[in-house]
Amino acid sequence: MAAVAAVLLYFLLRPSHRNRGGLPLPPTPGWAWPVLGHLPLLGLIPHHSLAALAKKHGPHFLLLNLGTTSPTLVVSSPAAVRSLLKSLDPLVSSRPPNAGATHMAYNYQDLVFAPYGPRWRLLRKLCNVHLFSQKALDHFSSVRESEAQDLVSRLSSSRSAAVTIGPMLTDCTTNALGRTMLGRRVFVPGEGGEFREMVLELMVLAGVFNIGDFVPELEWLDLQGVVKKMKRLHKRFDDFFERMIEENSNGGEMCFLGVLMALKEDADGEGSKISRREIKALLMDLFTAGTDTSSSTVEWAIAELIRHPSLLDALQLELDSVAGRDRLVLESDLPNLTLLQAIIKEIFRLHPSTPLLLPRIVAEDCEAMGYHIPKDTRVLINAWAISRDPDVWKDPLEFKPVERFMPGAPTAHMDVKGNDFEFIPFGAGRRICAGMSMGIRNVQFLTAALVHAFDWELLEGETPEKLNMEEVYGLTLQRKVPLVVKPKPRLAPHVYANAAK
């Protein structure tokens, strides 16, 4: 008991961060729990709780003590994001330590968690050139179209029976990503499903609140068994990626892994080679960030369109005028679908897949919006709160794509690509999501395909007006109640005949 009392006394009396530059620190809620600090204030849906705290204590910046780590700066307004990422971005472009980066991401050898510097820039350049460039996206468009066709065929075979659409969307996006990165599908009906289990477990673990990340003094205890599970799952992923690397010379579909292996052997210039470990870390990143994010966003899109039947009808008219009803919409049709683009922008605004952007850490003492920001402060940007700021968006809780984003609308110029700080579902600055271009295209195309191919009905007794739109917090922003719908084919029968091989 004496030892416990001594530890608590240390946490209570240890000196806090002090401002040596004469500027005030950002506002704080004040009193905090011993050891836990302000952690209990986060609640079950942290982006909601943090938005409410910001309204009460500081609309731009809020300084919290989460556990015993360095303080956390919560950023909740477009002006605050601009002050950080316009001129101070190099100082806030690295990540704070966490168990996931250590035990799953090959000890920070990946793109998401790698420290800002030359190696990170090399990994990002490789992804931008060979996976996320316009040329690369166009090269793999047939893969995504094939998987969308398979999804449409599977949905049509339900014969208007009720389906839970979320898992089917996850299968579709993950298979498209698997074929792009590994040259093979990874979710195959009738097969063992080992990789499916691994991906789903990874998503669960990534969304777990790990006490050791916030109270490092207790990290060694692994109170929740999170680290043990991460190490075990990492071993399974590592074995899987090793098999994929060994099988890469099988002559199948050209894939990103093949490109990386060629670069591993042929890269020229000192420090430009990519290691086998970095290749596996990149694959881990891409499966984590590129699957559930897109599928959950498309599920939100279908739900919003069901709630707004006039918009659903208008979008189907646009799709019919561009693609007709004798074939399924293609990715090449997307530039001609103005209403679709507006609707997807509004989905990203209301339902960002990562409501709290991945945390950053401040490299040295700095100043922003008249406040002193101490070195080693963690930065947490509440993208969900920012895109609902009533000072920017009229009726911010309403789904209004036409009024906001169709040509002629006052905010039509705003985009999701990190230049408009009022609207940053993919982040902004140097650490903006590397896969943004693929994510946008995935969501646009899958939404278009599902809306083009089907009319959507709810279960008997349910009405669009009362459709549950509550959120649950996790690795991605999920629906609290999964969307269960009845798809009814609306195109020519032959459109539904072909499935992905």
Please identify which CATH superfamily we are dealing with. Answer: Cytochrome P450
Give the name of the CATH architecture. Answer: Orthogonal Bundle
Indicate the mean pLDDT.
88
The largest sheet is: 4 strands, mixed
Low-confidence stretches: 1-18, 267-271
CATH class placement:
Mainly Alpha
Helix content: 40-55%
What's the β-strand tally? 11
Domains (count):
1
The fraction of residues in strands falls at: 5-15%
The separation of the N and C termini measures 64 Å
Large-scale geometry: globular
Structural class: alpha+beta
Radius of gyration: 23 Å
CATH topology-level fold name: Cytochrome p450
Strand order of the largest sheet: 1-2-7-4
Q: Number of helix segments?
A: 19
Question: Which H/E pattern describes the elements?
Answer: HHEEHHHHHEHHHHHHHHHEEEEHHHEEEE
Signal peptide: 1-18
InterPro entries: Cyt_P450, Cyt_P450_CS, Cyt_P450_E_grp-I, Cyt_P450_sf
Pfam families: p450
Keywords: Heme, Iron, Metal-binding, Monooxygenase, NADP, Oxidoreductase, Signal
Short description:
The protein has 501 residues and is α+β, with helices and mostly antiparallel strands. Helix content is 45%, strand content 7%.
Task: Explain the layout of strands and helices.
Blueprint: H1 2-13, H2 46-57, E1 61-64, E2 72-75, H3 78-85, H4 99-103, H5 118-130, H6 134-139, H7 141-156, E3 163-164, H8 165-181, H9 194-206, H10 211-214, H11 226-246, H12 256-266, H13 276-289, H14 292-307, H15 309-323, H16 338-350, E4 360-361, E5 366-368, E6 371-373, E7 378-381, H17 383-386, H18 401-405, H19 436-453, E8 454-457, E9 471-472, E10 478-479, E11 484-489
Parallel strand pairs: 2-7
Antiparallel strand pairs: 1-2, 3-11, 4-7, 5-6, 8-11, 9-10
Helix pairs in contact: 7-8, 7-19, 8-14, 9-11, 14-16, 14-19
Signal peptide: 1-18
Cofactor: heme
Family: Belongs to the cytochrome P450 family.
